[in-house]
Protein: Glycosyltransferase
Organism: Paenibacillus terrae
Amino acid sequence: MSYSTSHLIQQQMYTRERRGIFRSTEGFDTVANSKGLDTSFIKKVLHPLCVYDAPAALTARGEKQESVYPEAMHLIRTESGDVVLGRSIYKAADFTGLRSAFFTHNYVIPAGHGESPSDYKQWLNTSFVDAYDIEEGTELPELERLPGGSVFPSVDPSAVLSQLQLGEEMFKQLLYAVMMSATGRKKVYVALNVPPEAVASSAKLLLGVLYAALPYAFRNRLGFLTYAKEPQSRKGIHLMFVEPFSLRPGDRNVEKDFVFDLTNSGRVLNVDAEQVRQPYFDWIARTLLTGGTPDDFFKFAEQMLTGMEAGRDLTLSSYHELITLYRIEQGERGLYNERRISVLRSLTDYLSSPDALPRKMQLNDLFLSFFDHEFDRVKDGSIPDVGLVDCFKDYYKVHARSSENRLVEYLIRSLNNAYTTRNTEAVTYIYHTIEENPSLGKAYFTKVLGNPALTKLLFIPYMDSQMKRTPDVKGLLAVVHEWGSRYIEVSANADFQLLAESALMGRLRAERKPVEAVAAIHQRLRQWESSSTGGKFSPLEQSGLTERLQEASDRYLLTEVELKEISPDQVVQIPFFTRPDLVQWVGKLPAPLKGQAVRLIAAYDWFSTENPEPSVLEGLEPGEVEKVQDWAYSWLPQQLAEGHFARLLPAFYRSDGTGEGILDFARLVSSIRKWAKDNDTMYRFIRWSEEQAEFATPRGGFEPAYRRALLLFFQKEGREGLHKKTLWRQYFEPAKPVFKNFYLAAKRETDSSLVKTLRRFRKGGVISGIVLVVIAGTLGGLKAAGVIGSEAAPAPVTTPKPVQQPVVEPTVPVKEEPTAIVTHVPNTKATTKMVKLLFAFQTSAEQAAFKPKKLVIVGADQQEHSYENFTLAEQNDKEAASKANTGQSGDAKTGSAATGSTAAGGTTGSGSTAGGGTSGGNSANQAGTVTGESGAGTTSGTPTEGGGTATDGTGTDTDAPTEYDLKQYPYRTLLTIWQRLELDDASTVTVDGEEYPLVQVKTAD
């Protein structure tokens, strides 16, 4: 910086003298300068420019004439904008006359001092002083203008390039390098193919041509040096002309710079030939070489670059764009057709700056003429390229008011053409352009939605593509909400509603968890409703779209989702159960959907509460009940483990049952036994059931069928709970008396045989009990010794005389013998799939009244099996029936001719008993053994004398089955079920609600 307050041109001279301004001894120093120059500026800026090295070729030949040596003219721009223009020349002798020296004269032109684009002509023709005597003083005058005159010789670029042997292509490369160097860090080194003494003069000629080819902004940046002995990087110098042959190949100092060795080799380094083949370089070279002037273009470019971002005037691409626009404006319209998009993009770019229209009206008119041209093409059915649409969109951003209607119409016609030709790519990018600009989008969609035909033609297909792009239900609903809320015409449009519903169904089909997805849909739709302000309905609600989507999602569950595919946790999430109009809604459904809805509602009622009613499925068709129960059955083990006992009951509910038939207790207990991980779970369930009315009789206590099922459990698996003190105290001892009595009875039933025997005979006296224990012990010892019970023929046994003791008859309640029994007739073939049950009656009237409609059998699997289809056939014993009618048949209770044990009444006959017969106090419905039928169930036993109690080799057992004489039941009906079912001793038969005793299964005719 000069730091001068003056606006005049400053001077400085530098050479070798006896003394200088900054030194008192001889040497190179400033010998004179203008007063406006700052000392620091002189030392830091000007002194480094005061350099001259004579050409090696001239010194080698000992040239003494100073005028032969090339002058080193330099020009740089300082950081403050000042221009330093100077010249260094060779001096054959200094003040001593003994050595050579050089003399430098610098002009410092302040920034803004009458700058003009043609200043370069003045600079290249400025006059400099060749010598100065310090004795004349050290102060130089300040100048208003540079010396050298105002009329400069004209330069013929073609002649100069021809003289310097520079072709057009080489000139364009040099121009490219100079422009790049002026804005970058690379230097340009040029070795002209001229003698050393002609380097400077030739450089000035070439500089004149280069300056003429440079846009104004580059002219104001360029620094040059017309001669240097060797290439050397200097601050502020972009273009340096060097002594011929000084650019040596492989010189690492210049390997990254632009090198033009125009001597014999013609070597050029680091210039991209492709970059040179650009519009500006072609045009400027052609213009200059044909004698034209580029000044008009430079003015056009300067005007168009006004208001653009900083540095835009120093980018090469700007001039490539502007020269094309300039040529088109000058009438070369064919250039537009060659590069339509780039031309329009350039126009929109230069018109986008603030307040561009007033200054660049010619560009705006040019753009509008091109838009009209493109509009006509679209009218003819053309589909615009994406670049064209982008250009018009960018123009709209700046000049929306004047172009909106025309642009919207252009886009509508373009989209219509794209849809007509099914050009989906064009549709996509045109709509993308519309979406990017909210104001343009609003103008477009307002226009389209205001026309029903355009809505159907353009908007609905667009919405279809938008919905298809959404990844899931959430994204789809977001699209529907956005458009339905933004434009009320959209939410009320029937095609849009149908499209949204169809898209929603498609997304739901892709969901892995449809129930959760539908629940999320309802939640989202509720949010839409809650977002309404001021008590007003939103457009989505007013149009009914929200309700329609809810309805569609609910129907999807009914149509596409089977009950068997979802869990109870999912069932309770189904949202339509909370509809206030659920009953009416289900009633309006078609039959298939109605059945599915009823099943889902039943499942919801079942699992949505902790304590569902066992009859929750009542009212459903039997087939529907079975489907719901089958579905729930697989989820009940989890419910049992979690302690939800009440949720088990509906699975075992029988809607046709009364009293004991309300719950299938046998199947319930059997299932819990199977599902429970341990007996503790069963114990907890039993205690829980005490408080449930479904398990109790009106008088209190458990239902008989439930008691039988529990007794079977205690006998098979749960005995420990009754007999282990810790479990008894934990679970059963705290029970209410009515239930505790049952547990005590079950405990007695599950006692060991010895405990049962001791308990029974304790009633007949202590001595009788001791005798029996002794007898039992003796028999056990004999059996262990092999005396009795071996496979060999038994030796005659002398029956010991019983010890005469006072007999105390046990008090046994007398029970009546059943009037009808049933026995199972086994199949003769194992492959036969049928069940035969023989029902025997004492009177013909009872047989005539036997007209069964429904049969329930508890099989060996402890499950209930119901039958309504079976066959009946009478198989009466005519002889026994005749005797019964004449009163001549034997009395099974008192007649000594009767064979077999007494009936269930327990009265002991005086004749011999059957081998297995022990009279007992079993109830009338206890299983017994049939005797007297074709000799089939009859065995002979050893008669006892007087006691009335017969024993066999295994001892006495009060649990032995009671035998029945079929001759007392001469009226018989054979019932056949044409299905296979296994029966055992615990099986029961219930006909139309009445239970029949099942005789122990034995081979019989």
Q: What stands out?
A: The longest strand covers residues 83-91. Residues 908 and 948 are 6 Å apart (CA to CA). Confidence is low (pLDDT under 50) at residues 790-815, 888-960, 1001-1005. Residues 820-941+955-999 form one domain.
